């Protein structure tokens, strides 16, 4: 829309509403902003319900002043991230390993529908389907020259779901990495830099707003974490979530977590992913909390339960090898993880919208405990 097509009264109203808000942010401390933003958002919500939108420009600007930056919610609200949509698409017969990027390009509505289901279950943070955006990953399917198009489709579909917060996921680039070789580290960092630049360019082209954070997921080693975080920092000032996969014993690559937490502490949010029982994950969260003051993200890896496992789980019988056979078990896990110190929760693996909904209901309206 051209600016000269908007009535002067519209700009006057926007200026009157926005300038006090900008001045308030400038003179208030972060703590004062956090204490004030919730009642402000509630009031804004009531006003929006009684007032018709005045223009697309005001609708675009309104988000900036009615939704708190995700950093303002650190150590405050319990927040749930949407699950990956890959499993939902695989249930529809799509081979995500070979055709995931092609589906994103050719059938973006299918991906958007799966993401909308996650949004409807109560996830406050939608994770865009950009996990494989690194060029080295895309090269496996000869898609390295389509990264910009994939990012555009992923971000456009995510914004269409009107999330409170949009997080762009970047998986490990997969390149062999020699920590002692500067050339190897430089190549790895270049992969992550290019990925973030692609997301920045796609956001600018869409002009729907900038993403709220970057999620570096599945980092493979201390060196990989260092390269990824350093590279992302050079390309964006948005918060960085960094997460690693733990084994069934809550260990990283068979070792304790001190070294990897030290590397992840360079990010704004420190994360872990684990498929163990809730008690084991909670113990890992407590170890992470003792080593860092950053907010903690916990991703629970689940696998689909068979009909027999579901039946046994409803009878209260523990299922060996599948502790999360029903959404009820995830709700119990969410409470245990909150008590251990987690703020951000997510289900990954063979997760369904019901799994995300269980987490969202369990911690709805709750504050984190650290």
CATH topology of the largest domain: TIM Barrel
Write down the overall mean pLDDT: 84
CATH class of the largest domain: Alpha Beta
Number of helices: 15
Proportion of beta-strand residues: 5-15%
Helix content percent band: 40-55%
Low-confidence stretches: 1-68
Taken together, the total number of domains comes to 2
Distance between the termini: 45 Å
CATH level-4 homologous superfamily of the largest domain? Homocysteine-binding-like domain
Task: Please name the CATH architecture of the largest domain.
Answer: Alpha-Beta Barrel
User: What would you report as the Rg, rounded to the nearest angstrom?
Assistant: 21 Å
Describe the strand arrangement of the main beta sheet, using strand numbers: 1-8-7-6-5-4-3-2
GO molecular function, one term: methyltransferase activity
InterPro entries: HCY_dom_sf
List keywords for this structure.
370 residues, alpha/beta, TIM Barrel, 15 helices, 8 strands
Protein model, in words:
By secondary structure, the chain is of the alpha/beta class. It has 2 domains: 62 residues, no CATH class; 286 residues, TIM Barrel. Helices cover 52% and strands 12% of the residues. The chain contains 15 helices and 8 strands. Strands 1-8-7-6-5-4-3-2 form an 8-stranded parallel beta sheet. Strand 6, helix 12 and strand 7 form a beta-alpha-beta unit. The longest helix has 25 residues. The chain is globular and about 50 Å long. The relative contact order is 0.10. The N terminus is likely disordered. InterPro entries: HCY_dom_sf (IPR036589). GO terms for molecular function: methyltransferase activity.
């Amino acid at each position: 829309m051209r600016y000269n097509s908007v009535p002067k009264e519209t700009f006057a109203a926007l200026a009157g509403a926005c300038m006090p808000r900008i001045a308030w942010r400038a003179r208030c401390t972060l703590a004062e902003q956090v204490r004030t933003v919730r009642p402000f958002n509630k009031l804004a919500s009531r006003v929006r319900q009684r007032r018709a939108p005045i223009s697309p420009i005001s609708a675009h600007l309104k988000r900036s002043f009615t939704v708190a930056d995700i950093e303002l919610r650190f150590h405050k609200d319990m927040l749930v991230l949407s699950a990956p949509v890959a499993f939902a698409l695989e249930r529809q017969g799509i081979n995500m390993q070979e055709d995931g990027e092609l589906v994103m390009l050719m059938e973006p509505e299918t991906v958007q529908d799966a993401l909308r289901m996650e949004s409807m279950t109560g996830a406050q943070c939608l994770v865009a389907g950009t996990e494989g955006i690194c060029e080295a990953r895309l090269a496996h399917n000869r898609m390295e020259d389509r990264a910009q198009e994939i990012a555009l489709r992923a971000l456009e579909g995510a914004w269409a779901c009107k999330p409170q917060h949009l997080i762009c996921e970047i998986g490990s680039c997969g390149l062999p990495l020699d920590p002692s070789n500067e050339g190897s580290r430089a190549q790895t960092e270049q992969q992550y830099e290019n990925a973030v630049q692609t997301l920045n360019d796609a956001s600018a082209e869409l002009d729907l707003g900038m993403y709220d954070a970057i999620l570096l997921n599945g980092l493979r080693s201390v060196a990989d974490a260092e390269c990824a975080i350093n590279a992302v920092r050079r390309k964006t000032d948005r918060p960085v979530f960094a997460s690693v996969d733990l084994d069934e014993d809550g260990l990283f690559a068979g070792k304790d977590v001190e070294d990897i937490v030290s590397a992840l502490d360079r990010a704004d949010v420190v994360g872990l992913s684990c498929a163990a029982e809730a008690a084991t994950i909670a113990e890992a969260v407590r170890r992470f909390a003792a080593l860092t003051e950053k907010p903690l993200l916990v991703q629970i890896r689940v696998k689909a339960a068979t009909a027999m496992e579901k039946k046994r789980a409803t009878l209260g019988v523990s299922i060996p090898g599948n502790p999360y056979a029903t959404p009820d078990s995830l709700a119990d896990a969410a409470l245990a993880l909150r008590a251990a110190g987690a703020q951000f929760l997510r289900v990954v693996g063979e997760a369904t919208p019901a799994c995300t909904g269980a987490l969202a209901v369990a911690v709805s309206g709750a504050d984190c405990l650290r």
